């Protein structure tokens, strides 16, 4: 062991000692805070004398109350802070840091040794920073700079220049230094080799120790409202997005919390797959949702919404069904900017005519007909914006409801209802009304429920539903207005328009909506009523963004007007029918304008071995620009079989071999769920094999059978493509799907086919795979 190594080990031991001391101190502080809290709670009512006889007494009571609740809030906040700190320290105890830079500031004589870990650690006694947080401004040098002159910027943007003299990377396990490398040029090729070469355990991990320069740009970007990241499969887009969340939480720690950040992810299983990364860094997870969750939340009560994966399953399996071509056209058109613009024009036309309403019914009688609503809407306030006009109409309806209520209170039918009221109900109403009038429970008996009170109560209750409907502007007939859009839109260039129209109506007749209609429908509703907004959210991250339509982006922008957006995607993995023909995010620039948009392209791919990347990159037309990380493995193997039986026998053996090899996550990837059913049944003899379905919410390590579209975003030690035959992967429409499934493999890729292999392989040079 050389002297430098020994010196480093000595330092690690000392740092761990400091961490242990701090942890001990925090345990003490925590228990003191707990005692304090218990005391506050115990003596709360002793400290606060409730007396409201005079105004002064009332004021004193309120002040006392406020002081005690404030003391409780301060205590809780200190407790939370102490807990967060000890959780970080516990994470650092065995592996306190991973890197060091030796930086000499210009005009300084001494060089500072800056050690970098997941959080800052200070030696209070000597006023020395023992570890810098990886997100601290000076730590950017570790990720960005090569040996020589360099700089970093302070939070106030001051440029600090100096010399980077050394960059070192450490691997520490259980407090013992395993190895240290000179990382002068790139961070840890050796460490990366080790990390990437490992068999995957359950979930995705943080990559802070080995963030690459181009990824660092994404993580620390703050210059524009919209950041677009286009990167090849396995280039670390999701990883960078999650470290970016951690970075934002650090940089804006005074003003931003994890619940002000939302990650839009492709499915619920993906949420579980990435859920460990932020906690590993000692941060709370951001909110995670799917776009479908949001649509369900907004429209689920009104209609049954098709799931995006059901749409995909149809596209993948129903090629021979009648109406297939027309559905495909509809999906593409309904997600296009052309449809978006058409809808905006249609919306403008509604100012003149075309708004439709529901009759307003109360107690079985129409109190205002749809025609009356129409006439009123198109005769008043014509110069105003449509949703302001709707607001005014709403106000006038609410007035009408009040008058209707007044009349109803005196009507004969309410007298009849009062006559029929049961004793139980009467008692209940008596209590409610007494409470409303300010009586205490002990005084309920004193309250005399009059006939009039009863009538008011019953009428108001009856009116509630209608009032709610009016307040939500649900008196407009959105469904018919959406249908009329199809009549209004005479599509010259869509050959199957009339069939598309009929099919959409047929679905809507069942109170259902195709996935491709859900966002446009909601968008139109929002245009009319005014957009619901959420100003709490400060940052939005959209992963697998190639699958989002122009509508969805526009929608998210309007829904979260105070948020910045990070959009990450790869058009080579655009597997949804509407997104297949698009190759870039250019149309997104118009969202916030060019000045507010930054674009980063990343081409280096880390997930797979060099051999797998060389193979997969030739599947897609522009793939040659993808750069593989230099990690060696075996070439992918393509095997053809003469029958399904032979395929299944071979797969059983293959899975067995992979398991013996020590691979922990093995995926048999089928094109569709329909194919999964077949594969799962045939492979059911394999112990613990699982079928991943749309409803699967937990990512579990092991051997799985999974449809292509659910494998997106995740990775496996070994991938077996179930049946890449000419029949299944028949043509170019599945090129991106084929690329996506093959790029899920980290260490081994086996492609099988029954009969001749897919023509998509013709693009791959023969020396990039083995053929059996
Ligand atoms: N700098 C890095 N250090 C260590 N591992 C990395 C690094 N960058 C990426 N990886 C690893 O590479 C794999 C792929 O990363 P990730 O899933 O983030 O890529 P992606 O671009 O989102 O992929 P895809 O588009 O195919 O879903 C992960 O296992 C991740 O941990």
TrEMBL record:
<dbReference type="GO" id="GO:0016787">
    <property type="term" value="F:hydrolase activity"/>
</dbReference>
<feature type="domain" description="UvrD-like helicase ATP-binding">
    <location>
        <begin position="210"/>
        <end position="609"/>
    </location>
</feature>
<dbReference type="InterPro" id="IPR000212">
    <property type="entry name" value="DNA_helicase_UvrD/REP"/>
</dbReference>
<dbReference type="InterPro" id="IPR027417">
    <property type="entry name" value="P-loop_NTPase"/>
</dbReference>
<dbReference type="Pfam" id="PF00580">
    <property type="entry name" value="UvrD-helicase"/>
</dbReference>
<keyword id="KW-0378">Hydrolase</keyword>
<dbReference type="InterPro" id="IPR048228">
    <property type="entry name" value="HelD_bacillota"/>
</dbReference>
<keyword id="KW-0547">Nucleotide-binding</keyword>
<dbReference type="GO" id="GO:0005524">
    <property type="term" value="F:ATP binding"/>
</dbReference>
<dbReference type="GO" id="GO:0005829">
    <property type="term" value="C:cytosol"/>
</dbReference>
<dbReference type="GO" id="GO:0043138">
    <property type="term" value="F:3'-5' DNA helicase activity"/>
</dbReference>
<dbReference type="GO" id="GO:0003677">
    <property type="term" value="F:DNA binding"/>
</dbReference>
<dbReference type="InterPro" id="IPR014016">
    <property type="entry name" value="UvrD-like_ATP-bd"/>
</dbReference>
<feature type="binding site">
    <location>
        <begin position="231"/>
        <end position="238"/>
    </location>
    <ligand>
        <name>ATP</name>
    </ligand>
</feature>
<protein>
    <submittedName>
        <fullName>Helicase IV</fullName>
        <ecNumber>3.6.4.12</ecNumber>
    </submittedName>
</protein>
<keyword id="KW-0067">ATP-binding</keyword>
<keyword id="KW-0347">Helicase</keyword>
<dbReference type="GO" id="GO:0000725">
    <property type="term" value="P:recombinational repair"/>
</dbReference>
């Amino acid at each position: 062991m050389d002297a430098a190594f020994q010196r480093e080990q000595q330092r690690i031991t000392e740092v761990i000692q400091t961490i242990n001391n701090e942890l001990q101190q925090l345990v003490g502080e925590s228990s003191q805070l707990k005692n304090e809290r218990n005391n506050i709670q115990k003596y709360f009512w002793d400290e606060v004398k409730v007396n409201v006889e005079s105004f002064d007494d009332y004021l004193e009571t309120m002040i006392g109350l406020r002081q005690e609740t404030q003391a409780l809030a301060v205590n809780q906040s200190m407790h939370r802070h102490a807990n967060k700190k000890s959780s970080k320290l516990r994470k650092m105890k065995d592996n306190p840091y991973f890197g060091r830079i030796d930086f000499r500031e210009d005009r300084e004589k001494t060089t500072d040794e800056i050690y970098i870990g997941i959080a800052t650690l200070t030696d209070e006694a000597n006023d020395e920073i023992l570890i810098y947080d990886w997100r601290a401004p000076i730590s950017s040098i570790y990720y960005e700079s090569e040996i020589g002159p360099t700089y970093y910027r302070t939070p106030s943007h001051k440029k600090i220049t100096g010399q980077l003299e050394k960059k070192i990377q450490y691997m520490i396990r259980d407090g013992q230094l395993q190895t240290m490398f000179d990382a002068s040029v790139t961070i840890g090729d050796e460490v990366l080799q080790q990390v990437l070469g490992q068999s995957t355990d359950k979930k995705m991990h943080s990559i802070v120790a080995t963030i690459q320069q181009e990824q660092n740009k994404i993580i620390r970007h703050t210059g524009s409202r919209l950041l677009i990241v286009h990167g090849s499969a396995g280039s670390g887009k999701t990883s960078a997005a999650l470290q970016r969340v951690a970075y934002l939480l650090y940089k804006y720690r005074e003003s931003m919390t994890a619940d002000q950040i939302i990650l839009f992810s492709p499915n619920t299983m993906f949420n579980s797959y990435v859920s460990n990364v932020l906690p590993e860094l000692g941060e709370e997870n951001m909110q995670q949702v799917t776009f479908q969750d949001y649509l369900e939340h907004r429209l689920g009560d009104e209609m049954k919404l098709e799931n995006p994966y059901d749409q995909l399953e149809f596209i993948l399996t129903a090629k021979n069904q009648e109406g297939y071509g027309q559905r495909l056209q509809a999906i593409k058109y309904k997600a296009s900017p052309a449809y978006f613009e058409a809808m905006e024009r249609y919306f403008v036309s509604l100012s003149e005519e075309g708004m439709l309403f529901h009759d307003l019914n109360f107690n079985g009688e129409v109190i205002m007909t749809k025609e009356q609503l129409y006439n009123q809407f198109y005769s008043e306030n014509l110069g105003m914006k449509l949703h302001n006009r709707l607001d005014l109409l709403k106000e006038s309806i609410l007035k009408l409801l009040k008058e209707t209520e007044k009349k109803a209170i005196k009507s004969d039918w309410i007298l009849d209802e009062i006559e029929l009221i049961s004793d139980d109900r009467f008692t209940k109403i008596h209590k409610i009304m007494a409470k409303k009038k300010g009586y205490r429970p002990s005084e309920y008996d004193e309250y005399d429920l009059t006939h009039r009170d009863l009538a008011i109560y019953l009428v108001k209750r009856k009116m509630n539903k209608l009032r709610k409907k009016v307040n939500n502007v649900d008196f407009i007939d959105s469904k018919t207005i959406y249908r009329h859009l199809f009549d209004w839109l005479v599509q010259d260039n869509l050959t199957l328009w009339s069939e598309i129209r009929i099919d959409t109506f047929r679905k809507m007749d069942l109170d259902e909506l195709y996935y491709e209609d859900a966002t446009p429908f909601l968008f139109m509703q929002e245009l009319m009523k005014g957009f619901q907004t959420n100003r709490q959210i400060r940052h939005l991250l959209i992963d697998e963004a190639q699958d989002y339509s122009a509508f969805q982006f526009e929608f998210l922008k309007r829904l979260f007007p105070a948020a910045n957006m990070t959009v990450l995607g790869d058009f080579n993995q655009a597997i949804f029918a509407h997104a297949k023909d698009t190759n870039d995010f250019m149309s997104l620039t118009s969202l916030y304008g060019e000045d507010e948009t930054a674009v980063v392209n990343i081409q280096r791919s880390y997930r797979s071995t060099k051999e797998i990347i060389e193979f997969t990159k030739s599947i897609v037309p522009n793939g040659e620009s993808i750069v593989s990380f230099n990690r060696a493995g075996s070439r992918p193997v393509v095997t053809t079989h003469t029958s399904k039986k032979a395929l299944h026998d071979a797969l059983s053996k293959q899975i067995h071999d992979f398991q013996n090899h020590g691979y922990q996550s093995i995926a048999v990837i089928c094109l569709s769920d329909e194919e999964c059913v077949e594969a799962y049944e045939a492979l059911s003899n394999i112990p613990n094999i699982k079928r991943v379905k749309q409803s699967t919410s937990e990512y579990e390590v092991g051997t799985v059978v999974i449809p292509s579209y659910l494998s997106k975003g995740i990775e496996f030690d070994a991938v077996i493509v179930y049946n890449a035959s000419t029949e299944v992967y028949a043509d170019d429409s599945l090129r991106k799907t084929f690329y996506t499934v093959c790029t899920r493999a980290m260490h081994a890729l086996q492609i099988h086919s029954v009969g001749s292999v897919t023509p998509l392989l013709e693009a791959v040079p023969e020396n990039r795979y083995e053929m059996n």
